[in-house]
Amino acid sequence: MKNKKIKVMVSWSKVVPVLKNYKKIFRKKKIQIEVKKTKQHLTEYQLLKIIDKYEGIICGDDEITKKVIDKAKKLKVISKWGTGLDSINTKYAKKKKIKVYNSPGVFSDSVSQLALGMILVLSRKIFENHIQVKKGYWPKPTGFSLRNKYLGIIGLGKIGQTLILTCKGLGMKILGNDIKKINKRNLKKLKIKKVSKKELLKKADIIVLCVDLNKTSYKLINFKEFNIMKKNAILINISRGSVIHEKALIDALKKKKLYGAGIDVFEKEPVDSKNKLLKFENCILTSHNAFNTIEALKQVNKNTVENLIKEF
Fold it and tell me: Which domains does the chain have, with CATH numbers?
């Protein structure tokens, strides 16, 4: 029994290149790594067939449901790569005495920078201009200045606050909304005016969604919210796809209620080739990639592996 290996499943490809750096400690702790290749994540169905073998997991957005946890008789630790835990039934894992770790705040800079990039590209119509120039045209599309415009941040956590600090340098006025209690010192320091969601939607020229996905944020932006928004506002989503009702977003773009949209996350990922969002030139789409900078990857890889190791 002393030579028994501790089996650990790795299902997130971004962490695989750094595993070789931990070979000695894996050997010392008798940890045996098994890498599972996935296009996006492991589904509940896929996990149910294999989860009973493992004492540890390094995962991405794998569907770690109550059923999966019940099947995972040996599981001691789930080390989530990244920040979001909405794909893991954390309450049930805790009940079963399974430790769940993530890396809170590690993507604050990278995600907020992508949001800023989308704001700049959309407000100045850079993408639309780029397409026309490549087609041989020489148009002069008119954008708008960000100075004195209202930036509405829904979700005042670390990403939201980082984005606020950046955008203040552009002379923007900040409106904030969050159902959670936010440290008053932080609000005062950042000079954030905290308002209701309705007031934010009415006033904001640019709205950025920085919320976690949970029961209160599911389809937070629906048909009703698009009707409240200021005409020609920009909407950016760098949180989770299901925070926006996609059909409502498509309807708003079709009816030209929005100046533009920047979407990094979708209800269904990868995006279906028939998704109607693909046809709008004023809609910038990225592949759930806001986190992805060299610096952020290095830090989160380190955190994720070390969170796993400390439990064995």
Answer: 6-103+295-309 (3.40.50.720), 108-285 (3.40.50.720)
